[in-house]
Amino acid sequence: MWPLYALLVITVVLSVERTITLIILWRKHEPVIKAQVEKPLSILDLIAMIAPVLGFLGTVTGMITAFKSVSEASSVQLQVVAAGLYEALFTTAFGLVISILATIASFTLDLAIGALCEKEES
Fold first, then answer.
1. Using CB atoms within 10 A of its CB, is residue 102 exposed (0-12), middle (13-18) or buried (19+)?
2. Where are its TM segments located (predicted)?
3. What's the number of CA atoms in the CB half-sphere (13 Å) around residue 85?
4. What sign results for the dihedral spanned by CA atoms 38, 14, 104, 119?
5. DSSP assignment string, the chain
6. How confident is the model over 29-75, as pLDDT tens digits?
């Protein structure tokens, strides 16, 4: 989960930083080089691709934990399996949520950059 938390923090910080930067550039009415403003958005795209994979890795480790506890238990009870399944499902969902947030932020910021650079060209 820690790598997923780190990706979430990076997504939020980068999204807020880019939003503030775009607002400042929009207010200054100075020429904007699209490539420079767009460059950090590739990090959001990378996060959108990596987060689900890390979530699925959590699924695999959770399933391993669940099956290990089943193999070590003398009698199989729901509580023995439930902890591993919870870990598996939670990390998957969290990875997907991070991916969705990064994708939406990247798309929205890309639209804003496009509009800002269009305004500067006209």
1. buried
2. 6-26, 46-68, 88-117
3. 6
4. negative
5. -HHHHHHHHHHHHHHHHHHHHHHHHHHHT----HHHHHTTHHHHHHHHHHHHHHHHHHHHHHHHHHHHHHHH-SS--HHHHHHHHHHHHHHHHHHHHHHHHHHHHHHHHHHHHHHHHHHHH-
6. 888 888 889 999 999 999 999 999 999 998 898 888 888 878 887 77
